[in-house]
Amino acid sequence: MQQPTEKEIIDEFIQICQGHLLKITPQRVAIYKELLISDKHPTADAIYQAVKKEYPNISFDTVNRTLLKFAEIGLLEVVEIFGGAKRFDTDVRNHHHLHCMRCGKIQDFMHGGYDNLAVPEDIHNYFQVKRKRVVLKGICKACSK
Amino acid sequence: MQQPTEKEIIDEFIQICQGHLLKITPQRVAIYKELLISDKHPTADAIYQAVKKEYPNISFDTVNRTLLKFAEIGLLEVVEIFGGAKRFDTDVRNHHHLHCMRCGKIQDFMHGGYDNLAVPEDIHNYFQVKRKRVVLKGICKACSK
DNA sequence: CTTTTTGCAAAGCGTTTGCATTGAA
DNA sequence: TTCAATGCAAACGCTTTGCAAAAAG
Q: Across the beta sheet with B127-140, what order do the strands follow?
């Protein structure tokens, strides 16, 4: 299949919103567009700073609420952190994390072998698994010097 | 080997502190004792509230700084969270996490099969892996109603 | 016209910092 | 006697809330 055009991507976004009874506002579209080109794990403030360049009147509040709303409907995910500002993950594909225990930075990595881990039987009795992730904790290159 | 006595546990704690040039204070001992009997993933405030019963004059500050210090020397670990107050993990054995995406609660589970995951070769080139953890994200029993 | 969303300001919560005092070594 | 640790208070950063005005459906 072809790479979808931006229009197609935005159309799909609009459909998803409508499916969840969310109104389409220029702010939400701008935030969504920014997410498409942003860093892997942006904070709400990073998105706010970026969107503000085009919409100088947008408030941090709207950005933050929108991101939380997007997380609710599964457009993105809140990422595990060690503390500090929340980070959002715009990549809903299967991927895994390297957590630096010193600086707190999170790097993604792909590894097919981790994607198909079997979930222990008994867990299904008390937990509904939506996503699997392997987190490798340690020291990143920059911090190991 | 026998279950170690409390005295032995505290003696070991004192040795670890001395090894890191930390002074032994009654507050630190009290905090450490509390950690031994506390919940799996206490917040600094939870530890503070508990220790305060015995040491009414202790400040939140001391508790918080002590926990961060303990994390620095490897006595405990800061746990991945989705946001909110930091949580500390007093169990340094290998174990894995269930993260509820709705309420944010973290449950531990053990699974031998996950403990021995092979780390992809190339990761060693840019990351020093200290610990491996599988995180299953989803909805916990309480939230799925 | 109705209901959601926005922007703003204030409040809230958790963490961090500076500093004088205390206490361990 | 020295230097680290404590307690306190203020500052700080991030998140959340309430509410009136604006905008979407």
A: A106-109, A96-100, A127-140, B127-140, B96-100, B106-109
